[in-house]
Each structure stands twice: as C-alpha cells, then as structure tokens.
Design a protein that fits this description.
alpha+beta, binds zinc ion, 384 residues, 23% helix, four-stranded mixed β-sheet, 15 strands
C-alpha cells in the first residue's frame, strides 16, 4: 500500500464506521470512473475503494491497525484471521464496484461484439479392450456435430445479401442510459436488445442455417488412440469439436477412455496381474507351463519347490507406457493346488511318500502354529 488507508479516506485513525462511510461516499462521488474516466482518477478510485473495503470491515481494520497487510498472502501480525478472496492475485475491483454501485461501472468490453464465437467442446466415451489400451488402436468414430454452413460459409446471411447496421443502437452494439444516483449522474450501458450486441442485424438470414452460420451434421472420422491409455484417460483432439456460431473456430473433441474389464488380467498402472494354479506335484518338482499373455502364449518356468503366493514376473509383457518407450510387466501369482479327491491308490502312494519322509501325520499330532512340519514339507519339495 503506497499510502495509509486513513490518509486516503481523509479520516482520523479513531474514526467511527459512519464517518468512514461518509468520507468514502464523498470521495467516490468525485472519483467514480463513470464521472471522471481518466486513468489517474480511476487508480485513485481503486485505492480509496480498497481502503474502504478494509476500514469498513472491523476484522480487516484490526489487522491493518496491527500492521498486517490484509491483501498480502500470509502477511504480518494476525495472519490467518481469514481474508478469503483477497489473495495476492489482486483486488476484485469490478465485483466490488458492482456490489457498491449496482451495475453502474465495470463493463470493460465496449463496442459491438463479433458474431463469430468459438464452438463448444464435446466429449465422447470410447470403450476399449485391454489389449487396445496396451497397444493402441485406430477407431472410426461417428459424431453428431456442427459444421460451417455450406450455403453462407458461416456468414449467416442469405447468398447475395449483407448484414445491416442495427437501427436501434446505430451499430454500437450497446445502449447507454444516464441515471441519477447518489453519486450524481451515472451512465449505464447494456447490450442492445435489438441486435444482441452484434451491432448488425440480418435482414435476410441464410435459409439453411437460419443465420447461425453452421448446420448440424453427422460426421465420421478416424482417430488413432495411443498405446498406454487407461480407464479415464482423456484424449484431446484439438479443433475436432463443433464449429462456433458465425463461422467461429471449432471447439475440441475429447475422447474419454473406458477400459473393458479383462477375463484374466487385472491392470495396475502398466503392470498386469494374473493368477496361475498349478498341481501340487508341479510345484514340488517344477514344470514349464504355457501362460496366456497379451502377446500370445508364453512359456513360464516353475521352479521346483514353488509355493502358493510366489510371484513370477514376465518382464516387458505388460502395457506399453503412454509417454515414452518400454512396457510394464506381467506378474503371475502362483497358487499350488492341494489335491482334494484321492482314489485309494493315490492315497496309498501319498501315505507311503509321507512315511518315507517321516511325515506321517496321525490325527491330532499337528497343531496350528507348529512350523516344523510345514518347513520340513517345504524342504521336502525343495529337494533338501
Ligand atoms: Zn447458412
Ligand atoms: Zn443494436
């Protein structure tokens, strides 16, 4: 703050709220931008508005008196008292002025506005298989959208005709009114209702688009979906949204990826996880098993002595990284299946096997928590 808020408003430091309000009104009447539009006065007006905003709020005033800067970020003594909305980014001048003066000031844009405006963005959801997400895909999309009207090329006028200057506003696109208020005469400006602020009217609108400059249509396009996208990825196709009114630039088209669940693989980031169930003997003796991956069947070596819960990573058989080279991994979670239905012959063999290893288990001998049996069993499968 260049100048002390009290000095700016011309009041004593112990001035009451009424006095501050009166002083502010008096100054605002002199300095209001609609009364006195030169830049220096406007700057001054901004300053006194800022001063008033602080001094009229007991909390902000107290902080200011304590030496804090109510407009600074995390400033001085008493910071944290809560000056929401008044960050370092600046003073919401126009809002404040609107609040105090009604809508007498603050309409920054002057003059007629152009008919051309940017088209809206659109979002389309596309469902992809896991392998399409992993390796990318090309899709043909059909979208309902708006394109430039072929009859008027976006002008909105019937062929051979031209827009006419609006008779209500004389082409300015806005209408000004002088009102009397407590500040004296205040000029209010609003968009011209006859031409919607364009400054021109279309006496002969294009018959095909009715003056909008664009027509609705269905359009197909081929899009390339990059490898590595996942559920929720948004792909931006710049300028592929609908064309704007009056031949304005097109909006963007966004593709939102929906990844279909896969029967075997669960995706975590760019890694894939699956389970593999092997028979007890294969776990004990080791085996080579063919496992389905996104790249087709892949041979996996099961080492002798493999336990339930062990993981076997197949490096580089996961999803391609979206930005850059390389791929995630395929992680196989092994489950060793205990045979559950034994015929008498098999049971006999297993009992003999247990006897050979000194692992005969009379009922009640093995209690939960007895690690010895299981570690011996494991050692047995590991061939120790
Ligand atoms: Zn047209
Ligand atoms: Zn007008």
């Amino acid at each position: 703050m260049a100048e002390d808020f009290y000095t700016l408003l011309g009041v004593r430091r112990d001035a009451g709220q009424d006095e501050i309000k009166r002083a502010y009104r008096r100054l605002a009447r002199e300095l209001h931008p609609d009364v006195n539009p030169d830049p220096e006065t406007q700057e001054k007006f901004k300053e006194i508005s800022q001063a008033y905003d602080v001094l009229s709020d007991p909390e902000k005033r107290q902080m200011y008196d304590l030496g804090g800067d109510p407009f600074g970020a995390g400033a001085g003594a008493g910071a944290g008292a809560g000056f929401g909305g008044f960050g370092a980014a600046g003073f919401p001048f126009s809002e404040f002025v609107d609040a105090v003066f009604g809508n007498a000031a603050g309409s920054a844009a002057r003059g007629p506005k152009g008919r051309a405006r940017r088209g809206r963005n659109a979002t389309i959801r596309i469902e992809l298989d896991l392998s399409e997400c992993a390796f990318g895909a090309t899709r043909e999309l059909t979208v309902d959208t708006a394109v430039v009207c072929p009859t008027c090329s976006g002008e909105g006028t019937a062929p051979g005709t031209h827009p006419a200057t609006c008779e209500v506003c004389g082409g300015r696109g806005e209408i000004s009114e002088v009102r009397r208020s407590f500040l004296g005469q205040v000029m209010t400006t609003r968009p011209c209702p006859a031409c919607s602020g364009f400054g021109t009217t279309l006496p002969h609108p294009c018959p095909e688009c009715d003056g909008d400059g664009r027509v609705r249509t269905r359009r197909t396009m081929k899009v390339r979906i990059p490898a590595g996208v996942e559920d929720g990825t948004h792909i931006q196709l710049a300028g592929e949204g609908e064309v704007g009114p009056g031949g304005g630039p097109s909006g963007d088209l966004f593709l939102e990826v929906v990844q279909r669940p896969h029967a075997i693989f669960e995706r975590q980031g760019d890694d894939l996880h699956c389970t593999l169930t092997i028979p007890m003997v294969a776990g004990a003796l080791g085996a080579t098993v063919s496992v389905e991956s996104l790249d087709g069947p892949s041979d996996v070596d099961i080492r002798p002595g493999t336990q339930t819960g062990q993981v076997i990573p197949l490096y580089g058989l996961g999803v391609k990284h979206l930005n850059g080279n390389g791929r995630g991994d395929l992680i196989i979670h092994v489950t060793v299946e205990t045979p559950s239905r034994l015929d008498p012959e098999q049971e006999k063999l297993l009992r003999e096997f247990a006897k050979m290893r000194g692992e005969e288990a009379p009922p009640g001998k093995f209690q939960p928590g007895q690690q010895g049996f299981f570690s011996r069993l494991r050692d047995a499968f590991n061939g120790r």
